[in-house]
């Protein structure tokens, strides 16, 4: 409650929140108990876009030491600001997660996540360093080099998105490397993209590791928001960093523990950019009862999906409108398109089918057009989709709202 009061005081330095409070007829002193959090206004991703880039800062810009950003649906990214205190607390939170699953000083931690604006790289880097582990900032890609690092450096813990963990095993097989016999790997941290418990168990069996699910989002700092313990029966969410609510996405009223709804988070340990009742759009539930591990922080069930249309592919957040914006720039294309997501041999794949405006059998022209569309889509969404140009009228038509996305990935709830 003390941290919440401090957060509310910081929010009063932000014009956006001052206006929201005034519109609600609310004052910070009206929040006397944790249940009073329900009186606070919600914050959405669109609010972050509308206040791009620094409109939600609660401190002077000279006190900000880093920003991270994620892509937006119409080209405007969301920006998250951090003071040095924020970065220190973020490192502490990630270190706590890694410690919880048994990692200690003396472990060798390899991070195969992208660095830069994506928070997964630096978040795990600083958390692992805070714990005192030798860290290998391998970054994303170059699978044979990743494997060489794992074998040569004696890597004991690896952070990777689930689909890439499967790819690592495939290449190990091609190279004649048995991860159980030829490496010291024993702990895998996975997250950033939807995956089933079945997929996790398969990864554990292939690599001979225990794989722990991680939940985070850049708006809350990045990785380290919630994490599995060795019991692997839900993600402990750190209640000294966040006030946790589960609400009905339609009525926005709270739902009982155990019932699925939208996860809403309020930061209570951040200086630069506190967020009140942030609608994550992730659908989950609070698991009732206590965890056998002995920790009392609430546990979240694995994410069931999203209350909006965002897709997560290879750890990248993608909105259909981003793809549409690119496609509609090409006069040669019609207005109908279909995005299909599949999971082939543990790798998420995207196929974009789009209708041509006019028929042509000029193979060279079609090849050049496909290549240019693919290039522009990769620049926008950061992954390379498979682009298929199809004749006009060949895509299935729907009565009412068009179906733009078919997610054929097998994800168990």
From TrEMBL:
Keyword Magnesium: no
GO BP of this protein: phenylacetate catabolic process
Molecular function in Gene Ontology: nucleotide binding; phenylacetate-CoA ligase activity
Entry keywords, A to Z: Ligase, Nucleotide-binding, Phosphopantetheine, Phosphoprotein
Keyword Nucleotide-binding: yes
Residues of the signal peptide: none
Pathway the protein acts in: Aromatic compound metabolism; phenylacetate degradation
Residues covered by the AMP-dependent ligase C-terminal domain: 315-409
Pfam family, one: AMP-binding_C_2
Top-tier EC class: ligase
E.C. numbers: 6.2.1.30
Domain AMP-dependent synthetase/ligase: 61-265
SUPFAM superfamilies according to UniProt: Acetyl-CoA synthetase-like
Family the UniProt entry places it in: Belongs to the phenylacetyl-CoA ligase family.
Subunit structure comment from the entry: Monomer.
Protein name, per record: Phenylacetate-coenzyme A ligase
Taxonomic path: Bacteria, Pseudomonadati, Bacteroidota, Bacteroidia, Bacteroidales
